[in-house]
Amino acid sequence: MLLPDTLRRLSAHLRPIAALAACTALAGCFQPLYGSLNGGLASKLQTIAVDPIPDMIGHYLGNDLIFDLNGTGSTVTPQYHLKVQLVEAVSTPLVNSYSGIATSATVNVRANYTLTEAGSTKVVFKGTAVNIVTYDRSNQGFANLRAGRDAEIRNAKVLSDQIRTQIAAFFANGG
Exposed end of the chain (fewer CB within 10 Å): N or C? Predict the structure, then answer.
């Protein structure tokens, strides 16, 4: 009976050591996306020029992309051009049966984008980012207008983050 108790106490002391050894062994398997190990990924992202995007949400998305890709404010000679095409759809899934007024709205936005080399039409990378945002509607017209604009701003921020992350992953994988 003495042997199982000793083994139980010994295994209780070895568990943290085994967990630490496993973490140490796996530490070399991961590298940060924006760390210095990727050979200047941030400087590569700064060389992307964002082409103008039409409509109000395109304005918000363009500004967010410029900030996310080159947040330093420095002027860098563009090596790539990012072209974004947006498809936006607004639906009102809930309608008050008494007043007949929509009580909420859903804004669906799909951003199809292509990254091309500067000075040519060669497509280096293309992808799609999608986001859905909902907002509440009221009887007040200005409140509905402002809530719709806030939904577009939120969509633009999320889409910009998705596009930046997808492009960064492409460059980090040797693209």
Answer: N
Interior angle at CA 168, CA 106 and CA 154, nearest 5? 20
pTM, 2 dp: 0.75
> Are the C-beta atoms of residues 58 and 84 closer than 8 Å to each other?
yes
Rg of the chain's alpha carbons, rounded to an integer? Answer: 25
Of 126, 120, 116, nearest to 167 (Cα)?
126
Token reading at 22:
């496993």
**pLDDT, tens digit, for every residue of 140-158?**
888 888 988 999 999 999 9
Q: Which residues contact 14 (CB under 8 A, 6 or more apart)?
A: none
